[in-house]
Write a structure and sequence with these properties.
Number of strands: 4
Shape: globular
Radius of gyration: 11 Å
Helix content: 25-40%
Mean pLDDT: 97
Largest sheet: 2 strands, antiparallel
Order of helices and strands: EHEEHE
Number of helices: 2
Strand content: 25-35%
Distance between the termini: 5 Å
Structural class: alpha+beta
């Protein structure tokens, strides 16, 4: 769950932040339920780097 997303701009910011991580293959951000699904290569990216990217974009990860 990602808290703080309120608009399509927020969705774009989260997608950009995650896309910048090596190993992220795709993202699906659902604003209505504040959910982000990420497909990534665990050999190149870890959950902590995904969480940090979302936090770096200005959102909280639940």
């Amino acid at each position: 769950m990602v808290d703080g997303m309120t608009c399509d701009g927020c969705v774009s910011a989260v997608k950009r932040a995650l896309a910048a991580i090596d190993g992220v293959e795709s993202t699906d951000v659902n604003l209505a339920i504040n959910e982000v699904k990420v497909t990534y290569d665990p050999a190149r990216a870890g959950v902590s780097s995904l969480r940090n990217a979302i936090r770096g974009a200005g959102y909280e990860v639940g």
